């Protein structure tokens, strides 16, 4: 084995560790700022349907099946509701005095949260359900 091959070999682990760090940082970054699905996706009747089932099952005992009970404005009265903001409240929760909205990011996948977001938007004034 000549000296160049020898050097390459000994450098490989350092290079490899660096690449792994970059890959790990990319994954963590993606979790911090979840990618917003495109507008059409959030109108997908199947997403809305799946989100509805999950919402009634998981969130209904506080919010009611259509988000009009609970200690906040009914979802249907909201207009111009930013999907990323909805996702963030669901994922991270929120507290206002004694009103506690639990965080769900450990219990629900990002996909599930986006489907629930699609359902919530379908209730809100801005978005009409697709015919
Ligand atoms: C233990 C009761 C409880 C459960 C369960 C719950 N929430 Fe909430 N949620 C609240 C409360 C209380 C608030 C109002 C928090 C505040 O006043 O800031 C809230 C606020 C919200 C808001 C923001 C409303 C607004 O007007 O900005 C959204 C969206 C929401 N919840 C979605 C969900 C979803 C989706 C689930 C199920 C995955 C869920 N919640 C489960 C109690 C709950």
Describe the protein.
The protein is mostly helical and 131 residues long. The chain has two domains: 1-33; 35-131, Cytochrome c-like domain (Cytochrome Bc1 Complex, Chain D, domain 2). It is 58% helix and 5% strand. The protein has helices at 3-32, 39-42, 45-58, 60-63, 83-92, 110-123; strands spanning 94-96, 99-101. The chain has a two-stranded antiparallel sheet with strand order 1-2. Residues 20-30 have low confidence and may be disordered. Helix 3 (45-58) packs across helix 6 and helix 5 (83-92) crosses helix 6 (110-123). The chain binds heme C (HEC). The site of heme C has 21 residues, from helix 3, helix 4, helix 5, strand 1 and strand 2. Heme C (HEC) is lined by residues 55, 58-59, 62-63, 70-73, 86, 89-90, 94, 96, 99-102, 104, 116, 120.
Helix-strand layout with pairing:
Elements: H1 3-32, H2 39-42, H3 45-58, H4 60-63, H5 83-92, E1 94-96, E2 99-101, H6 110-123
Antiparallel strand pairs: 1-2
Helix pairs in contact: 3-6, 5-6
The protein binds heme C.
- Shape type: globular
Taken as a percent bin, the fraction of beta residues is under 5%
CATH superfamily of the largest domain: Cytochrome c-like domain
In CATH's first tier, which class of the largest domain applies? Answer: Mainly Alpha
Low-confidence stretches: 20-30
Mean pLDDT across all residues, rounded? 80
Largest sheet: 2 strands, antiparallel
